[in-house]
Amino acid sequence: MRTQVAIIGAGPAGLLLSHLLHLQGIESIVLESRSRAEIEATIRAGVLEQGTMDILTEAGVGERMRREGALHRGIELAFGGGRHRIDLNELTGKAITVYPQHEVIKDLVAARLAAQGQLLFEVGAVTLHGLDSERPSLSFTHGDEIRRIEADFVMGCDGFHGVARPAMPEQARRQDYQRNYPFGWFGILVESAPSSEELIYAQHERGFALVSTRSPIVQRLYFQCDPSDHVSNWSDDRIWSELHARLENHDGWRLKEGRIFQKNIISMRSFVSTPMQAGRLFLAGDAAHIVPPTGAKGLNLAVSDVQLLARGLEQFYHQGSEQRLQSYGADALKRVWRAEYFSWMMTRLLHTSADATAFECEMQRAELDNIVNSRALATALAENYVGAF
Ligand code: RFL
Ligand code: PHB
Q1: Exposed (0-12), middle (13-18) or buried (19+): which is 248, by Cβ within 10 Å?
Q2: Alpha carbon of 221 to those of 160, 214, 232, 258: distances in Å?
Q3: How far away, in angstroms, is 283 Cα from ligand 1 center?
Q4: Which residues of the chain are under the pLDDT cut of 70?
Q5: 217: part of which helix (H) or strand (E)?
Q6: 297 given a catalytic annotation
Q7: How many Cβ atoms are within 10 Å of 70's Cβ, its own excluded?
Q8: CB-CB contact of 40 with 106 (8 Å)
Q9: Rounded distance, CA 240 to CA 258, Å?
Q10: Is residue 183 within 8 Å of 152, Cβ to Cβ?
Q11: Ligand 2 atom with the shortest distance to the CA of 220
């Protein structure tokens, strides 16, 4: 097989890149190790920045998102028994949309298939070859066959555990920056009406909690836990009493309970791998960087990476210039490091560390107090959250 751009991974990064290239008349093939049913059912992110919504809308895949997604003009910070609204819209002129990542995936898969895009599911043993040449290639298994794709470029959009980053040629002198956090998030999906019109990020001595939503009848809740804990240790009753304890407040607001139909634990890390390109290999999304979910940035970063890549490839194929492709890594990393900072800052601000001293706990509370009482600090948080710059 031969194509212009070979893409590994049908997550948001790989699928959107393939779609953006198609709109520019550039051919691609996407290789995905999981099945279509699996990628369309994996529960992950929920928050889309306005810039992400704009890109999806301009690319013609935002129609269902605009119809079914919920526009949120603010978020709440809860601590010390009170709730404090950060008015994102008033402070930045922007808002966010809560629309589940797997729905974005469904919309993108449908768009690729409708355009006869080549999307191969359940491939195995993807191996990269000739990355230093102008004819890189990929070999892989598909069913009983061993196949090979020759391309002009290989795009590693295969997430944190993919094969593209480790295949980065040695002379690129890859450097990884990493921080693992001593906490995880216990996530549940619940059948109930929303408890709150806006997301609630709660800091509590028992640990962080987050009230999010998926739809008018399904809610997404998280609470900080030990990353090595097991879902089986948490009965529904224990989950509800923990959430009530962390979200309790003085104004009588109460979390709505409902049937819990999914439980999972995720670990949290900050990670950046540089460079994001070497020869004809480019990395985008979680393949190159991970943020803890507290800042709701991961999916949005994946989208902004592939927008830069699509522009670079468009310039390469239509104007014969490699300028944008060559500055891709440096351009993407500027935004990546800012999002890393914000996600790290939000994580530190809202989580409870077992080894924090009494003094450090007071500093954390004072920092929250400063944010909700200072328009300047609240604006800085809001700008980062909506992705205003
Ligand atoms: P993905 O989504 O991991 O997709 C990579 C795809 O590559 C496939 N793959 C391979 N295919 C072929 N050969 C191989 N060798 C392969 N290895 C892997 C995988 O099967 C997969 O389909 O990466 P991508 O596209 O870069 O997208 C990144 C986002 O998925 C991620 O950043 C977000 O989900 C992070 N995130 C959030 N981001 C937000 O912007 N807002 C949020 O509110 C938000 N909440 C979250 C999150 C992530 C979470 N988890 C589970 C880590 C909440 C959670 C709980
Ligand atoms: C989600 O709804 O899954 C979600 C929302 C906000 C976050 C992280 C995850 O910061």
Answers
A1: middle
A2: 24, 10, 17, 11
A3: 13
A4: 389
A5: none
A6: yes
A7: 16
A8: yes
A9: 10
A10: no
A11: 2
**Alpha carbons 197 and 213: distance in angstroms, whole number:** 9
| CATH superfamily assigned to domain 182-267+353-386 | D-Amino Acid Oxidase, subunit A, domain 2 (3.30.9.10)
Q: Which DSSP helix (H) or strand (E) runs through 346? A: helix 328-350
What is the rounded distance in angstroms from the CA atom of residue 315 to the CA atom of residue 307?
Answer: 12
Amino acid 91 reads: L
Report the nearest atom of ligand 2 relative to the CA of 98. Answer: 2
Q: How far apart are CA 144 and CA 155, in angstroms?
A: 25
Residues 6+ apart with CB under 8 A from 260: 188, 189, 190, 236, 239
- Give pLDDT, residue 384: 97
Q: Which of 18, 31, 101 gets mutated to test ligand 1 (max ligand atoms within 8 A of its CB)?
A: 101
Length of the chain: 389
b/e map 251-287, b = 16+ CB within 10 Å:
eeeebebbebeeeebeebebbbbbbbbbbbbbbbbbb
Dihedral in degrees, nearest 10, Cα atoms 169, 172, 173, 177: -100
How far apart (Å, rounded) are the C-alpha atoms in residues 218 and 226? Answer: 25
- CA-to-CA distance for 364 and 213, rounded, in angstroms? 27
Separation in Å, CA 96 to CA 72, 75, 198, 296, 314: 5, 10, 10, 10, 29
- Residue 76: per-residue pLDDT: 97
Which homologous superfamily does the CATH classification assign to the domain defined by 5-46+100-179+269-345? FAD/NAD(P)-binding domain (3.50.50.60)
7 lines ligand 1 (CB under 6 A): no
Q: What are the boundaries of each domain within the chain?
A: 5-46+100-179+269-345, 182-267+353-386
Angle in degrees, CA 54, 56, 59, rounded to 5: 105
Helix, coil or strand: residue 222: strand
Told to judge if 328 belongs to the known catalytic residues of this protein, a careful annotator would answer: no
> What's the token pair of residue 244?
């009530």
- Among candidate residues 72, 94, 204, 351, the one labeled active-site is 72
pLDDT of 388 reads 76
Query: Beta 5-8 vs 153-156: how paired, if at all?
Result: parallel
Look up residue 136 and give its amino acid.
P
pTM, entire model: 0.96
